[in-house]
User: What shape does this take?
Amino acid sequence: MPEYAPLGSYRRGDLIVLRKGGHFPAYCIKCGAPTMGGPIKRKFSQKTGFASSVVGTANLIAPWLGGIAAAGWLATRETEWLEIPMCAQHKDNYQTARALGLTLMIGSGVTFVILAIVRTPLPFFLADTGLLICGAVSFNGFLNVRAVTVDPQICILQGAASSFLSHLPVEELSPPKTAG
Ligand SMILES: [Zn+2]
Assistant: This one.
């Protein structure tokens, strides 16, 4: 791949804009260091205020209605798998956090069953719920990069390191000016 081939990714302020078919330059999204290995694959979805307010309102009417609204939103929302470049160190941290999170979630799930069988008092269930939440947070991998817009044509992400952003060309919003 030639170094100056168009990437299809741009910076817009502190946002990353990825056009359809584009990819990111080979620099770590967390620290801006050049990356050697392959990127991580991550599914992004748009978290809109509108969707959460619809789910919230449905929840107020009836919890089961909120559940249906949430399931409907999960089934119909736009998602995209993106390849996120990371240096060896950050990829290692990410994968360790994911593995730890998964272990915690499975472990707390098994513990729930055991606690239910031996009829443990409520505080133990609450402690186990805490473990489950910690697991879910860790499973997210502390990526800190969130999707602002997820669309088949364009994805806009927030939270990349400024040292990564500096490797991206600034997005040209107006049509290119012709000289003369
Ligand atoms: Zn890094």
The chain has five helices and six strands.
